[in-house]
Amino acid sequence: MPLLKNQLTTSFPFKNPHVNTIYKFFTAKDKPDYKRVRVNTWDNDFIDLDFLPNNSFSLIVLIHGLEGSSQSSYMISTANYLHNLGYDVMCINLRSCSGEDNNILKTYHAGKTDDVHFILKYVEENYDYQNIILSGFSLGGNLTLKYLGEYENQIPSVVKGGIAVSVPIDLTSSQAELSKLKNKLYMQEFLRTLKAKVNLKAQKFDEFNPDKRLIARASSFRDFEEIYTAPVFGFDSPEDYWEKASSKPYLKNIEHKTLLINAKDDSFLSIECYPYELAENSSNFFLLTPKYGGHVGFVSSFNDQSYWIEKQFVNFIQNELNIYA
To answer: How many angstroms separate the CA atoms of 141 and 138, rounded?
Structure first.
């Protein structure tokens, strides 16, 4: 019965999910002094990893959300908090998200777990960590959950568990939610950078020749998946991509202790993204659904120093996984 009941106490106006979301997205403080490691991949590309070392035997891996990076405010806040407690932290910058375009036409998508597995194997083989906790936010959370279910029998033994925050575990219904008027501002911002990346890829690769008018007119994720994700990654359609990339079907396969935190007021998420029944009947899949928090927000006030989401990380890591720095 791993349904957790920890609640976030918020003040006006942070009971409004959009205030909570936007405030967190644009308030990054105390940028970490990351140590960057570039890892060459099997397909003549690279993935940039940003470390905050502490000489700990325990490493927390963080994966950002759509069009984020290690410099995203939620990544910075979580990385700093965990690092200050003595943990080593590693932020995975998904392909094309590290500040430099990657080498090949393919970048990343919500279900591309082969990159996650490659990086975890790299860390296992090149570092001396005894414990690794895999965690992610939004799209990165979907990657975390899908990986833990999809690769369950291949996961390196040093990986002890997972944490996922604000996760659209059902991409079909979540993209429909994001296409609603209430989320227009977020959709425009996501598409602004995605369109720029697609145009850049079209300039660099002759085999990729999308209609520039369609790119300019794209106003939804479906438009973008039809122009780029589906054809480039070999999906039959945007619907095929959403179905195959969603983490929800893999949750039942997860044997590592794993925590999912989805706020009930998250405007990005559909009702299908709250797997209460699965958590109620599981001994290792934990679900926490606070009333407030927005999408990757979880801010309590304008002078927020509560670190609510970061404390949930630590509570789970120490109390459920029994892992300390």
So the answer is: 5
Read off the pLDDT of residues 181-237 as tens digits, 9 standing for 90 and up: 999 999 999 999 999 999 999 999 999 999 999 999 999 999 999 999 999 999 999
Residue type, 250: Y
- Domain end position, chosen among 217, 244, 271: 244
Q: Which of the residues 64, 83, 109, 295 is marked catalytic?
A: 295
Q: Is residue 325 part of a domain?
A: no
- Estimate the crossing angle of helix 139-150 against helix 113-126, to 10 degrees: 70
The answer to whether 117 is a known catalytic residue is no
SS3 288: strand
Spatial neighbors of 311 by CB under 8 A, at least 6 apart, are none
**Structural domain span for residue 215:** 171-244
Residues 6+ apart with CB under 8 A from 226: 237, 238
Say which of 88, 170, 266, 304 is annotated catalytic.
266
Closest CA to 143 of 223, 47, 76: 47
Phi first, then psi: what are they for 217, rounded to 5°? -85, -10
Check if 128 is active-site.
Answer: no
Answer yes or no: do 183 and 160 share one domain. Answer: no
> Do 228 and 250 have their domain in common?
no
Structure confidence by residue, pLDDT tens digits, 8-22: 888 888 899 999 999
Q: How far is CA 252 from CA 146, 241, 248, 281, in A?
A: 10, 20, 8, 10
Active site residue 295: yes
Instruction: Tell me, yes or no, whether 200 and 128 share the same domain.
Output: no
